[in-house]
Amino acid sequence: MYVDSKFISDVVNGFAEVCPGDSQLCVAKDMFGAPNYASEVFQYVYAMRYVPAYYFEYCVLASELSSRVKGYAHLNVASIGAGLCQDYYALRDNVKIPFTYSAYDAVQWAARARMPPVGDNFNIVAKSAQKISAGDLADVDVYFFPKSLSDIAGSGNGVLSAFGGNIAATKKKRLFFLVSYVSAGINKSPASQDFSDIDKALTAAGFSTTDQVRGSFYRGDKNGEGLRALHQNFIYPSNVKISCSSQDGLKCIKCDAIKSPIYKNTHMSFSIMEYTK
Ligand SMILES: C[S@@+](CC[C@H](N)C(=O)[O-])C[C@H]1O[C@@H](n2cnc3c(N)ncnc32)[C@H](O)[C@@H]1O
User: Fold this and answer.
1) pTM (2 decimals)?
2) Whole-angstrom Cα distance, residue 276 to residue 172?
3) What range does the domain containing 103 cover?
């Protein structure tokens, strides 16, 4: 597995430059309550807090994918709920064959413009899972759900079943699913249940897998291991900190602004599944 420490420092330092400091985070009020993905300030904080650790997790998935696709000359990847697209960089850094990447999201992430440069294999498609047709998916070999399944499931009744039906309706006979689940911590979350609607739709259409569908794996031997201990290139810039001096005990308890970035494997939860028919 390859982890690009320069990608991590470019993202964190780049967003630190534009992220409002101190009490302006609070004034922006974008950090309160439910995730506010459409807010650019929220996106800056998200980038600094989550992108390095999630990129690391997606590198694990991408390197596993790379070891399974030796016979392919090219791959088409669809990332559903792509956000800032750090999965693209993980694929770029770990998949050894050419690929085309299409990022789908219900929300426009304006802060993507501040992410490191991408190649001409990168496409943005402003569509929610509800709007993606079987025709859109005709050439897709690899589906990436980067911490997005539970949000997509919550965006409407039956969305994942219908989406699974569209996947199953394509002519592809071999499909890969790279899923990273939102996790409250190792062994705390039944996160992988969200994939079952897609699994049912695939199974009903004659697909099967020998991978563990309800499995959800993390890297490391024990809960709480530092990502740096798992890979020497996970280096979060030590000079950057999301801080707020107006933090005021209980009054600020609902404010999400100053949580620490993720440095440990505690929130890793992922699985890779290969379906054939
Ligand atoms: C937790 S964020 C993950 C973002 C990014 N993939 C990452 O790894 O950081 C969940 C994403 O799912 C997107 N999303 C939620 N409902 C969706 C839907 N119905 N269709 C497509 N994307 C959706 C959100 O807009 C958000 O970008």
Assistant:
1) 0.95
2) 9
3) 5-276
